Amino acid sequence: MFLSKLFIPISKDLPAEAKIKSHQLMLRTGMIKQSSAGIYSWLPLGFKVMKKIEQIVREEQNAIGAQEMLMPTIQSSEIWKESGRYDDYGEEMLRIKDRQGREMLYGPTNEELITDVFRASVKSYKSLPQLLYHIQWKFRDEIRPRFGVMRCKEFYMKDAYSFDLSDEEANKSYNKMFFSYLKTFNRLGLKAIPMAADTGPIGGDLSHEFVIIAETGESKIYADKNIIDIDLNQYELNDGSLSKMREDISKIYAVTDEKYKKTDFDNHVKKENQMITKGIEVGHIFYFSDKYSKPMNCLIDDKDGKKTSVKMGSYGIGVSRLVGAIIEANYTKDIMKWPKSISPFDVVIIPSISKNNKENLEKAEKVYKKLKKQNIDVLLDDVDENMSNKFKKHDLIGVPYQIIIGSKSDGDNFEFKELNSQSEILNLDKIQLKLKS
Amino acid sequence: MFLSKLFIPISKDLPAEAKIKSHQLMLRTGMIKQSSAGIYSWLPLGFKVMKKIEQIVREEQNAIGAQEMLMPTIQSSEIWKESGRYDDYGEEMLRIKDRQGREMLYGPTNEELITDVFRASVKSYKSLPQLLYHIQWKFRDEIRPRFGVMRCKEFYMKDAYSFDLSDEEANKSYNKMFFSYLKTFNRLGLKAIPMAADTGPIGGDLSHEFVIIAETGESKIYADKNIIDIDLNQYELNDGSLSKMREDISKIYAVTDEKYKKTDFDNHVKKENQMITKGIEVGHIFYFSDKYSKPMNCLIDDKDGKKTSVKMGSYGIGVSRLVGAIIEANYTKDIMKWPKSISPFDVVIIPSISKNNKENLEKAEKVYKKLKKQNIDVLLDDVDENMSNKFKKHDLIGVPYQIIIGSKSDGDNFEFKELNSQSEILNLDKIQLKLKS
User: Fold this and answer.
1) Which end of chain A is more exposed for a tag (fewer CB within 10 A), N or C?
2) How far does Cα B35 stand from its chain's mean position?
3) Is the distance from CB of B399 to CB of B348 less than 8 angstroms?
4) What is the pLDDT of residue A202?
5) CB–CB of B269/B253 below 8 Å?
6) Nearest residue of B to residue A121 by CA position?
7) What is the per-residue pLDDT for A216?
8) Cα-flanking dihedrals φ and ψ of residue A340, to 5°?
9) Nearest by CB to A35, which of B68, B76, B94?
10) pLDDT in tens, B325-352
11) Which residues of chain A neighbour B32 with C-beta distances below 8 Å?
């Protein structure tokens, strides 16, 4: 893609309404545009990053055998009346009357709807366990939407649901999701800490939040530093190994505000390992057993032919929020560097262009074509602008690798730079190897 | 995927509410489940097909240089008041009041919102032409939703928008999209006929519908038979060739009901080539110049520094509707056969299983593993059911190729069948070649 053709409305001003750095960066680099309070359009740069995150989330859900499906955004109030949550949910639920006066709503969460799908489809224990997920837009009518995509009204989420015959079986599903979440966040270049958490309006008695450390986070964290260095490679996708993983992790203290007790913290964690900080919630998982299946009559025949309420859990990852969270975690000292796995482009070519000399631009186009042939996703900055401005701009766009074509490039050797590092002179073959590694 | 694990609630009954064959098939094979009138969940089988269609649509949009982005589902009424359509639109628009009493709506179409994005982003002719598109859920509060996903309330659409400096330039964008549409429908295995059409509530004076022939269609078609056999390979992606394409096609008579005149039809089309039939609209493109940009003040500096309203067109493909339309076009004589490009699986293995003999199932699992290694997406029917029932079921699920493991299979030779054809005995290498061709 040539930068001059990319639909990327870059702004030089610091947007006044943006209080945190991810929100500022996303507006300045034209990743998003607000359409009304708490509601955004995703322009090509932001869209590309979000889609890459979505794809990693999807792959790691598929890897544990979860099946993708899709529920609609608009739901009938009927099922919410069945579960008893319609009146409880409050004003964050966007309530709608259709042209025939029926009470509808924009789904803020999907426990009721998936329970309705499941009870119409599955009757026997033989079809269990089941893991279903979808990635869909949700809406919460926040009274004070803020922080850009971090706390907005219309947001994109992955929601998975597990269905099992017993608490014991359900625990295995919970562990699989736990494992999938840690793998997902690793691939996104994030250190996400699993913490025992309150269940809140979803209900149930087992719950974990996955939190990344960031000063701008809204969650307070109390944890043993050792939890940051869990080595996932020691575990495998089978019930025994995953049960061991849960056990190992549960020994390391890590809780959110609501679960925090000073005496526990001091008893379990050495002073020098105590970490008190703020974080951003990027995932939340719940086990709530028959909280929805019982009132909604979602019954399964067990091995003895007896009907029993199916045992359910739910598992969320905020896909659109992750874009902001990843920026919060990676944007430091005025330089944003995207993790390789989700960068909007693999590399950017920055030629020094002057009015009377297009030689560098021509060289750049040749390199561009060669890299494209290797399936490398290249951005070429063909804009007629001085190099200092270009570098400032690309410090914000955040493509992690740059090929700079100016005075230092010579024949087949080019200045190659990884953001936050020194540049080096390399030939194109070596550059390709670096980009593909 | 093993069929016993797939979340596919198959029903043996013909659903009473379904009047057309695509709706019947989608309910019977568990592709969708209605959640409320005109609103559906997409279960894994239906979801997979829809995603494959989406991906083909996306690739063909990218191929003409269109850039993907995403607009939200919930819009503010303000921009609709600017364009003048807020009052005009009628009851099909789902109108919403948020908790602060602001008038919002679920987007039935996006001309206003994209114009708002564009006017905030682009100021100069130098950034033109631009083609932007998104694939998003839309809502129309149909008074009588019917025919399943063909005329439902919440539906999935690709919408593209073109931005140009002049009518002449805009015509080039229109032609590119025209070409992209024909290529898209070809890849989906559809014969889509481009027809001069009315512009309706979108406005403008140039418009084409893309219609596939189907008895259950709601559009009446009058066309010269020759239009079915347009050879796209004779055209290339450049303005000259595409202008020639439009010219060639415009010479062949093909119009919808509103544009039909008997005298024109008889004058232009020989009796033996006259085709009067019904069809399903799967795409619709419009050129409406400054209909939205003018009232919404979306101005561009032209080459002389003079401000001028940008010239726009819009281009829709009904992605969720296409699932139904493709079934209508391919489901005949009680057999559904998905086009290879969008089939939910590449091949299904059907072993004959009896209670006391699992030998065929074991053979099937070996074949399954081998094909999976070749990146072939295989469904294995491991359900304990008689072969006659299995075949009936797979006639509906519609995977185009079957490997039947029963009495005719011998060593490395298996019965291989393409739906609607005779089976043959082939070894696995030959089967792989057929599947990959």
Assistant:
1) C
2) 22
3) yes
4) 64
5) yes
6) B9
7) 79
8) -50, -40
9) B76
10) 999 999 988 899 999 999 999 999 999 9
11) none
Tell me where in chain A the CATH 3.40.50.800 domain(s) lie: 345-436
If we measure between CA atoms, which residue out of B210, B217, B193, B184 comes closest to residue B53?
Answer: B184
Q: Rounded to a whole number, what is the distance in angstroms from the first to the last CA of chain A?
A: 22
Handedness of CA A273, A276, A282, A285 (dihedral sign): positive
Q: Under a CB-based contact definition with an 8 Å cutoff, are residues A346 and A435 in contact?
A: yes
- What is the distance of C-alpha B394 from the center of its chain? 23
Nearest CA in chain B to A105: B96
Please state which architecture CATH assigns to domain A345-436.
Answer: 3-Layer(aba) Sandwich (3.40)
Residues of chain B neighbouring A40 (CB-CB closer than 8 A) = 72
Query: Closest Cα of chain A to B121: distance in Å?
Result: 5
What is the Cα gyration radius of chain B?
A: 24
CA B437, CA B429: separation in Å to the nearest integer? 12
Residue pair B93/B143 in contact (Cβ under 8 Å)? The answer is: no
Chain B contacts of A35, Cβ < 8 Å? Answer: 71-72, 75-76, 113, 116-117
Check residue B354 and give its pLDDT. 84
Residues of B in contact with A127 (CB under 8 A): 4
Residues of A in contact with B6 (CB under 8 A): 67
For the segment A381-409, the average pLDDT, to the nearest whole number, is: 94
| Whether pLDDT at B201 is above 70 | no
Whether pLDDT at B172 is above 70? yes
Cβ atoms of residues A401 and A414 within 8 Å: no
Q: Which of B395, B418, B406, B413 is nearest to B10 (CA)?
A: B395
Q: How many CB pairs under 8 A join A and B?
A: 150
Q: Give the closest of A36, A69, A91 to B42, CB-based.
A: A69
- pTM to 2 decimal places: 0.96
Determine, for residues B7 and A139 on separate chains, whether the beta-carbon distance falls below 8 Å: no
CA distances from A262 to A222, A276, B204 (A): 9, 11, 69
**What's the rounded Cα separation, in Å, for the pair B319 and B276?**
26
Question: What is the distance between the alpha carbons of residues B322 and B341, in angstroms, rounded to a whole number?
Answer: 13
Q: Candidates 3.10.20.600, 3.10.320.10, 3.30.450.40, 3.30.930.10; correct CATH number of A21-336? A: 3.30.930.10
CA distance B205 to A268: 74
Quickly state the pLDDT bin for B368 (edges 50, 70, 90): very high
Cis omega (within 30 of 0) on the bond before B129? yes
Specify the pLDDT at position B203: 66
Q: B60: pLDDT confidence band, cut at 50, 70 and 90? A: very high
Chain-chain contact of A44 with B67 (C-beta, under 8 angstroms):
yes
Residues of A in contact with B55 (CB under 8 A): none
Q: Which residues pair with B351 in a beta bridge?
A: B405
User: Across the interface, do B73 and A132 touch by the CB < 8 Å criterion?
Assistant: no
* Closest of A153, A113, A70 to residue B74, by C-alpha: A153
Distance, CA of A378 to CA of A216 (rounded, Å): 32
Asked if A336 and A327 touch (Cβ cutoff 8 Å), the reply is yes
List CB contacts (< 8 A) between B69 and chain A: 7, 41-44, 47
Residue type, A357: N
Distances A240 to A171, A175, A235, A251 between C-alpha atoms, Å? 12, 10, 9, 17
Comma-separated ranges of CATH 3.30.930.10 domains in chain B: 21-336
Residue A318 has φ and ψ, to the nearest 5°, of -85, 100
Distance from CA of A416 to the nearest CA of B (A): 28
The number of residues in chain A equals 437
Residue B131: closest C-alpha in chain A: A7
**Residues A292-333: tens digit of each pLDDT:** 999 999 999 999 999 999 999 999 999 999 999 999 999 988
Which residue of chain A has the CA closest to B104? A36
Contact by Cβ (8 Å): A434, A426:
yes
Tokens of A338: 């995207």
